[in-house]
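Q: What would this chain look like folded?
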Amino acid sequence: MKTDTHETALLAGAARSNITPPLGITLDGPIGQNGPATHIHDELHARCLVLSDGSTTLGFAVCDSTMITGRVFEAAKELVAERTGIPADHLMMTATHSHSVPRAMDITDDAGFQAYLDFLAQRIADGIQRARNQLAPAQLGWTTTEKPEHLNNRRWLVKPEVLTPNPFGDSGERVRMNPPAGSDALIRPTGPVDPSVALLSVQHEDGRPLALLTNYGLHYVGGVPKGHISADYYGIFCSAVERALGQAGQDPPFVALLANGASGNVNNIDFRTKRTPRPPYAKMTEVADDLATAVLTACESIEYTRHMSLSAATRTLDLPVRRPDAQRLAWARTIMASAGGPERLSSREVFAREALFLEDYPPTLPVPLQAFALGDFALSAIPCEVFAETGLAIREASPFTGTCVMSLANAYHGYLPPPEQHELGGYETWPARSSCLATDAEADIRAGAIDLLNRLRPPG
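A: My prediction, written as structure tokens:
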């Protein structure tokens, strides 16, 4: 791997900030229907890393949350900028997409839930500030490996006999998300997966491990009992890497981070074969440990440099929202007039409720895009659940030797299906707060992400 020869020595610091909510909080599920938290299986964290080349400082926070609304990230960035002087646009904050945690969005007016959102912003900022406090001479390197065996595209073309009308009563869709595993009705998945695993390794100048940032395009694994709080495989992976690379009594501790890549249409289920029931937490532990083993092996080949230039670029796109028309709103009001309580909504009722929420959305939304360059390695941050084909296209077009795409970054604007996937239909395309952008948004966002990378184009 080529190393940078910039004259300024690197500084780095890392920290973990606990973001575990109190029991009783609403957990994720079909947009907040998974009931209150009754048990904490493992604590949630914002895992933070700060890098500086002497003139530019960049901060990362990878948070154990399904997704995080832009106002929470913005509040955290304002706190960091005020306390440390790191500019807000030099802070990249992402959610992992565990589903056994609170969905950090404005899904309820409950005072306790809103208090957690305020707490979350504070604790993310605390983590970045603590990481900056611990800046010390460091060396950095990166590499990539591949781990395709845990990845499966979850959107399948299926035979017409197993397709049912969507929640709006429309027929003619060709795709089923998470179809019956092992069914004879399966035809083929509608897209690829991105097997790439990107690794950004940071060491103290004497070679002791300081932090490891990994990016992998896999949705959560699941297998968590209802009511349990868990960071899913992301947390288990980080713990495994920290046990392997951290040294007893090391101060400050080594920190591992695992960010969600282009996984909006990817999960861990192999739909070609029937599923075998597994005990709670078993599958996610298997995936996490296997990924950790591959990552640790890949780390052995990394070449490090103490001199690397850092840079950042941002832009905001103003993109149209798919707001419901009068006919859809009339349908939604009819459905919701006879709906049960929030814990008992059917799929049709959920999407009727979502139509009523989208009625209050503005015609367009500001969609923040961001890119960081670290020598010849780049990170592209998108505030959506990015499909694998989009991540692959951005990486292919990037002028950098290495590039990774970070989903769920800096805000949340739902799934990002390419136009051809919208034509096929399926869950990820149904209008809701979780899929609200116009059908051509993916092309605009992909072009915007590539433009930012070109602005940071490395010399030579």
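The first helix runs from residue 70 to 84.
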